[in-house]
Design goal:
This protein is mostly helical. The chain is built from 6 helices and 2 strands; from the N terminus they run H-H-H-E-H-H-E-H. Helix 1 crosses helix 3 and helix 2 packs across helix 5.
């Protein structure tokens, strides 16, 4: 995971940032803490050491967490059809994953924003737009 992340940072993210462009990722280091740490039980200390070794102090400036109870998420996944290996995990796995994301967000509310993803698609989209507009306003940039 970290080898792929380093390559992505070096070949895509850093060049885009050098051109003062915004970069959006659907998963980054927090996903490793959540899925491998919380879900699979890998030591958070080991993940932190790998993160520091591979990425140094490079991290996302802002992280949106789309939070919903595990049962809600699993119900939505089943409606889509085929499930990947993560989506086939038991509900306890997803509760642990969710808890890691929520804990990280609660420990750094400046960087993380939790969005109630159990709401309707329209409500979630409105919340995302509100957050992004606020980021744009506070960073004095245009999108």
């Amino acid at each position: 995971m970290f080898a792929a992340r380093v390559q992505h940072v070096d070949t895509v993210i850093r060049p885009a940032l050098a051109e003062q462009r915004w970069v959006l990722c659907d998963r980054f280091v927090d996903a490793t803490y959540a899925y491998q740490g919380g879900g699979r039980g890998i030591s958070m200390d080991i993940i932190a050491k790998l993160e520091h070794l591979m990425l140094g102090d490079f991290h996302a400036d802002h992280t949106l967490i789309f939070d919903a109870p595990a049962r809600v998420g699993l119900k939505r996944v089943k409606k889509r059809g085929n499930q990947d290996r993560f989506e086939q995990e038991e509900i306890d796995f997803f509760e642990r994953v969710r808890q890691v994301y929520r804990t990280r967000a609660l420990n750094n509310s400046k960087r993380y924003k939790i969005i109630d993803a159990a709401k309707s698609l329209e409500e979630v989209q409105e919340e995302v737009l509100r957050i992004v507009k606020n980021l744009v306003k506070n960073n004095h940039v245009q999108i």
